[in-house]
Amino acid sequence: xxxxxxxxxxxxxxxxxxxxxxxxxxxxxxxxxxxxxxxxxxxxxxxxxxxxxxxxxxxxxxxxxxxxxxxxxxxxxxxxxxxxxxxxxxxxxxxxxxxxxxxxxxxxxxxxxxxxxxxxxxxxxxxxxxxxxxxxxxxxxxxxxxxxxxxxx
Length: 153
Hints:
Number of helices: 5
Structural class: alpha/beta
Strand content: 15-25%
Shape: elongated
Radius of gyration: 21 Å
Largest sheet: 5 strands, mixed
Low-confidence stretches: 30-34
Number of strands: 5
């Protein structure tokens, strides 16, 4: 084997090692976030979200009672803006029903902003409905970024 072929083979091996390492790191990072919520019950997730909101400067954060909450799990305020937040800990993307619940709950509790907060992402119809109904969507990526900000501080 000549020197040129040897260098090409070594470069290919190093690139493969780099690719596998990066892929493993990304999988581990994604798995950590998923694992964190996997064992939580829905009500535990609501309290987790409420605590996170408090850390982010929200005040008067209140987890509503489980049934008869009119589609809202958390009531909160930040900088004079009042929020009605629907929390969804799902294993699949969140659909339109959650958007409708946040919309109804926002009006029932007379809040300025309705939000659906989830560990997942949203279906295309849910995103469209949220746009029309003026509901904020805080997906798993946004939730993760909120958590990472606290880790960096």
